[in-house]
Amino acid sequence: MYGNQVVFKSRDETGGLLAEKLLALRISNPIVIAIPRGGVVIGCEIAKRIGADLDIITPKKMPAPQNPELAIGAVMHDGSFFLNEEVAAASSASEAYIENAKERAMNESARRLAVYRGARAPPALNGRTVILTDDGIATGSTMEVAIKWVKKQNSERIVVAVPVIPTSILAKLRKYVDDVVYVEATESFFAIGQFYKIFEQVSDEEVVRMLQDYWKSYNKERKIG
């Protein structure tokens, strides 16, 4: 604990904590969709513990003019798009800037998807319970566009599962999805890393390895069963 704030040991730990909460929901036919990179660590742990399929999506933030750390929105590889109009207006982002940022982010999202998934066919989400996860939510832009994309896939139920989330974003997301599962909701939020003792960067190579290892082991277990 830091003051009254929960501090997690690692992403692996939070994956286990979220899995316990998800098991209590008795979800049928689940698929965990993780947001790279850190979200894949958590997604693997959740999927393993609840016996779910695992896949990824690659939403990409759109940076504000003159401030690459501030997101004005996010976009998916197929052009699914979320714009935070208040942040965009406050940062003086013109329509031309937004369109340019959207195109660059969409191309980067597609590139990352190809790196992580290779030629693997996209997951079929129709009629399934989709568990969207990341290692935390800060502004909510990437999660909002992820939700928007999943809704287009005709899933039966959408659950957002994250270790930490600002209370303002929690209230907002609850309007868009069936459930939000979390460990810590707080008004005191500066960066996701403040809630972890170990918050190392996850490389592209690690993401690919984790996904390949899970896909191989999970498919093998299902064939044996």
Structure write-up:
This protein is of the alpha/beta class. The chain has a domain at 11-59 and 125-224: Rossmann fold. Helix content is 42%, strand content 22%. It has 7 helices and 8 strands. It has a 5-stranded parallel beta sheet, sandwiched between helices. Strands 3-4-5 form a 3-stranded antiparallel beta sheet. Strand 3 and strand 4 (67-75) form a beta hairpin. Helix 1 (11-23) runs parallel beside helix 2 and helix 2 packs parallel to helix 7. The longest helix has 23 residues, at 95-117. The protein is globular. The model has no long low-confidence stretch (mean pLDDT 92).
Sum up the structure in keywords.
225 residues, alpha/beta, Rossmann fold, five-stranded parallel β-sheet, three-stranded antiparallel β-sheet, 8 strands
Poorly predicted ranges: none
Q: Which descriptor suits the 3D outline?
A: globular
| β-strand number | 8
Order of helices and strands: HEHEEEEHHEHEHEH
Distance between the termini: 42 Å
Structural class: alpha/beta
The level of helicity is 40-55%
Largest sheet: 5 strands, parallel
The second-level CATH architecture of the domain at 11-59 and 125-224 is: 3-Layer(aba) Sandwich
Over the alpha carbons, how many angstroms does the gyration radius reach? 17 Å
Oligomer classification: single chain
Q: Please, what is the average pLDDT? A: 92
CATH topology of the domain at 11-59 and 125-224: Rossmann fold
Taken as a percent bin, the fraction of beta residues is: 15-25%
